[in-house]
Structures are given as C-alpha cells and as structure tokens.
Amino acid sequence: MSEHAGAAITGGRTALGIELGSTRIKAVLIGPDHAPLGVGSSDWENQLVDRLWTYALDDVWTGVQQSFAALAEDVQRRHGVDLSTVGALGVSAMMHGYLAFDADGKLLTPFRTWRNTSTGRSAERLSAEFGVNVPHRWSVAHLYQAILDGEEHVGRLDHLTTLAGYVHWKLTGEKVLGIGDASGMFPIDTSTGDRATRGYDAGMLARFDQLAAEAGVDLTLADLLPRIGSAGHPGGELTEAGARLLDPTGRLRPGIPLCPPEGDAGTGMVATNSVAPRTGNVSAGTSIFAMVVLEHELAGAHRELDLVTTPAGDPVAMVHCNNGASELDAWAGLFTEFARALGSPADPSAIFEILFTEALGGASDGGGMLAYNYLSGEPITGLEEGRPLFLRAPHSRLDLGTFVRTHLYSSLATLRIGMDVLQQAEGVRLDRVFAHGGLFKTEGVGQRFLAAAIDTPVSVGNVAGEGGAWGIAVLAAFAGSRSPERSLADYLETTVFPGADVRTVEPDPVDVAGFDAFMQRYVAALPVERAAVDHVSPTQRGELR
Q1: Bridge partners of 279?
Q2: What is the pLDDT of residues 294-331, one digit of tens each?
Q3: Domains in the chain, start-ordered, CATH in brackets?
Q4: Domain of life, per the record (predicted)?
C-alpha cells in the first residue's frame, strides 16, 4: 500500500484540498481512489476588533503554510516521499463576509467575517428590493452597509471576494469563485436550465447599482465581483509566486491546475454526498447550518432561509445559524479544568465523550433548563449581538446528564426554527440528511438529538471524516478528471461513495416530543436573551463586565 501510494504521490495522481475553517486550517491529500494519503492542520482563532469579528491576513498565510508543511511531513512519514507536486488543487473557506481590495491589491478594511451582524439596515433594504432574503453575513450586505455608513474606502474599491477567493487569487492570479461560494456573495439566477453558465442575477445587479447611486456612490457591482466557475471547470494554475506562498521551502512546483474555490457549505455537501435534490446535510462546528437541495423554487421569501447553490449550480435552501458548538466547547473546557484541579487530568476528547454519553440519560425535554449559545448575534432570532446564557426554573433538577443535553439542544435550537419554515411552511421533503462536524463525533448522541430536532432520519459515517478539506480535494479531482457530460452528483454516487460506511438513526418519538417541549420554552424565553443583550455590555476584548 505504501509503495503504491508513494508512486501515486510522486506521479502527481493526487488531489490536494485546503480549507480555512473558523478554528482550523486543514490540508488533505487524496489518491486516485479518493482516500486520504496525508493530513496537515493548523489552529487559528478569530478576533473581536472594534466590535467586529476578523482574522488578520498574515494569519491566513501563516496557517496555510503550517498546514501544508504538516501535510508534507505526514506524507514523508507515511509514504517516504517528498510532496513536490499534486495532480490538482482546490481551496475552500468560510463563506460570505467582506474582503475589499483596491487596484493595487491592498486590503481596504479589516476582513469582516460571516460572524458579523452589523449589517441590519442593509440586509433589510436589499431583501425588500430584491424580493429574496439577503442575510446579514452576505458580501453584498456588507458592501451596501459600508455605502450607507459613508465609509471612505468604498470610493477606492477595485474588487470584492471571499476568503477562499482571496487565497485562490494569490495562488493563481485568477479572480474567480465557485458558484456555491459566489451565491453567498450575491444572488444567483438559477432559472436557466444551463447550470454551467449560471451567474449573478442581472436584474438585481442593476438595481444595486441604482441603490448605490441614490446613496451618492458610482459603481458597477458586476465589475467588482469575481467571475463564476461551476464544479468540473478549471480555475487557473498555481503560479511560481503562489507555489512559494504555499510552500516557502521551494519544493512544491508551479503549474498545478486548480478548481474554482468553494465555500465550506459547498464542500460539506460534497463530503456528505448531498448534492442531488431531496438530499441535505447538517454541519455543526463554530456555526451550524443545514443545506437542503431543492426540487423547485420556494413559494416565498423567508428571513430564516438563504437561497444558495450547490457547487454544480443547483438551488439550495440554507438554514445558517451563527452560533453552534462554541459555548458547549467552553463548558467542556470548564469540566476539563475541574478534572485537572481534582488531580485527575483528562484529555479534552475524553471529557467530551463522557459529557455527551451522560446526555443520553438526561431528561428528554431538558428538565426545565434553558441555554442560549449566542456568543455572537443570531439573525434568525433577531439578535444583533449574543450573550451566552444558562438558566433554569427553581424546581429544575440540576443533574449532569440533563445539563449537557440542554446545551446540546441549545446548539440545535436555532437550526430547528429555520427547518420548521422549510419543512412545514414550504413543505420541502427530504430523503436523507447527513450530519458531520464535531457535534457528531461521539457515536449516537448528536446524531440522535438532531434526528429529534428535525424529526427526520439522520445519517453519519466515515465519508466525511476529513470534512471540507477532503470535499474540496474531491472537487479538484473532479475538475481534473471528469468527462464534460458527467454530473457532479453522478461522479460522487458512482466513483467516490460506492460502499460507503453510513449509519442511520430514526427519530425517537420520546426525544421528538421532548425537543418540541424544549423548543416551546426556548422561544417563549427569547426575550430573556434579548434583555441580556440590552443590559450586559461586552468589553473591547469581548468579555462581559
């Protein structure tokens, strides 16, 4: 196996995927059978600067280089060969946000991530003008808010992109974006039957230019946005400068073809084989979101639902919640610290295993406890900022299992609100939902509670073990090997996922009823969370005073 893998690596019969997630940058190398041959990663964290969530661009390249170096070391250790080339390369990252550059390629304002919810006026106006939901985190909402606020940098704009688009641009010189990632910048016209040529909605582009002019800004938005590429199409080649940026040692050779860069939502769909209509997936990490591939257009616009696309350009309803498992991570960290203070230090993964297992024995309805996992604002529930909150009724029994189950329910509660709109108000049906992310690592726990939350069978398996980095590597391989008439869905079903190990859990009626009861209390007590936002102010460092 090692000799065979080594020959594939040295012969360039591989694909490399790099994904910049919210807490980790990861690089995965896959072979001709799409199995991982090596992995490297680097941790990073966003910062709250002037009440805006951001990452420094220097940290982007430090993390990317560390991840690639760790991957090269892993390949050398496992297969005894140097990583000097790959057959194809792809970049993915957190979707949305605002990266604005001038004509000299200078960043005009610190990177504003998807996590920011300071674009309320903009999102509301654009949603009304376009007749579709334009969420707070979309790039166009950030741009229009900057226009409304009279920000000086708007007059010097040359181009806008996402984090994946920025990294790809620096590696290739190409200002291009995969259609899935682009659909989180500006609405896509999915009415045409030709997926390969779908682009930004022309009527909405023209209306935006008019709105900008009314605010005293002369621009042509179409000239600022990246061009669009769909799955299977080329996205440029690794330049000499890009190769050195990725691998400062100089071992990596230029000329490697890249697929169009994609967002983490799209790579999650690929990693879970969820790109065909009536399929969906739920990704749970720092944020939590569901992607449901639609059979037809929705009947109306809903602020709880984003309309985006698959990497192939098919319409998708997205329920995106800014807050996922971070607050649960914080509580697990507290228990880890407690174990250390007792003189019984434990690995954090073991702490998570214990806590999640205990949750299975907790009260099915949360036992009167409530938790809000809002570290940042949450547009679905109308909150522009977040305050993590735990509360209980005086009669609530404070036991460990119910406490942890309450926090697990909390991490899924906002998602449930959006899924109710999709499943009940719009009548969307799902054949399968695949779950992936840290919330589902402990077998049978997060999966069971998600099934209860959306009253739908939920599958997990080893197919998404390396997550979005593996997904973008698969997209890179698809772009490098597909025949023009082959669809992405067919490629995944017949070439990548046959015989995949998948385990499915049906909703437990007791859990479903318990989650319903929890949600009634959760929605009724949202004014308490609102009061916390109104009366507890964050300091500059994001801590509560």
Answers
A1: 432
A2: 988 898 889 899 899 999 999 999 998 989 999 999 99
A3: 2-272 (3.30.420.40)
A4: Bacteria
Burial class from Cβ neighbours inside 10 Å (0-12, 13-18, 19+) for residue 58 reads: exposed
CA distance 492 to 312: 12
Contact partners, residue 11, CB within 8 Å, separation at least 6: none
CB atoms within 10 A of CB 81: 18
Structure token digits, residue 155: 């007059």
Number of residues assigned to the chain:
545
Closest CA to 16 of 66, 118, 63, 84: 84
In b/e form, how buried is each residue of 339-369, taking b as 16+ CB within 10 angstroms? beeeeeebeeeebbbbbbebbeebbbbbbbb
Rounded CA separation 139/321 (Å) = 17
526 burial level (CB within 10 Å; 0-12, 13-18, 19+): middle
Which residues, in sequence order, are CB contacts of 104 under 8 Å at separation 6+?
none
The secondary structure element, H or E, covering residue 289 is strand 288-293
Structure confidence at residue 283 (pLDDT): 87
Report the percentage of the chain scoring pLDDT > 70.
97
Q: In 3-state terms, the chain is what percent helix, strand and coil (to 5)?
A: 45, 20, 40
- Hey, how many other C-beta atoms are within 10 angstroms of the C-beta on 299? 9
- What CA–CA distance (Å, rounded) separates 452 from 505? 10
CA distances from 523 to 3, 414, 427 (A): 58, 9, 22
Q: Residues 398, 401, 403, 404: what is their CA dihedral angle, to the nearest 10 degrees? A: 170
CA atoms of 344 and 351, how far apart (whole Å): 11
Amino acid 540: pLDDT: 43
Q: What is the DSSP string of 513-540?
A: HHHHHHHHHHHHTHHHHHHHHHHS-B-T
CB atoms within 10 A of CB 192: 11
Helix H or strand E encompassing 371: strand 369-372
